[in-house]
């Protein structure tokens, strides 16, 4: 079963919400090590780092650095940005 990048990025957002801490601005924060070492994430994402990079390129998540490595970057905080505010007319 292969997911396309868009699907993986969507699943990543769900997992960050599940594992992360909600912030006051509507964003979520999670440490890379928490995501990487989570069994459910390990089963979903063949290449978690690649999915993170794709999400970062789309400005959905933010984190320091380019390539996150397990162990070395376990404490790097990944922020799932708050969805854009919906204005009602």
Order of helices and strands: HEEHHHEE
Major sheet attributes? 4 strands, antiparallel
The count of DSSP E runs of length 2 or more, i.e. the number of strands, is 4
Mean pLDDT score, rounded? 91
Taken as a percent bin, the fraction of beta residues is 5-15%
Shape: globular
Question: How would you describe the oligomerization state of the chains in this entry?
Answer: single chain
Q: Using only CA atoms, what is the Rg?
A: 13 Å
- Cα(first) to Cα(last) distance is 42 Å
Could you estimate the helical fraction of the residues in percent?
40-55%
How many individual helices?
A: 4
Return residue spans where pLDDT drops below 50 for at least 5 consecutive residues. Answer: none
Structural class label: alpha+beta
User: Strand order within the widest sheet?
Assistant: 1-2-4-3
Overall description:
There is one protein chain. The chain has 89 residues and is an alpha+beta fold. It contains 4 helices and 4 strands; from the N terminus they run H-E-E-H-H-H-E-E. It has helices spanning 5-19, 32-36, 39-44, 48-57, and strands at residues 21-22, 28-31, 61-62, 77-80. The protein has a 4-stranded antiparallel sheet with strand order 1-2-4-3. Strand 1 and strand 2 form a beta hairpin. Helix 1 (5-19) crosses helix 4 (48-57). The longest helix is centred in the N-terminal third of the chain and has 15 residues, at 5-19. The chain is globular. The model has no long low-confidence stretch (mean pLDDT 91).
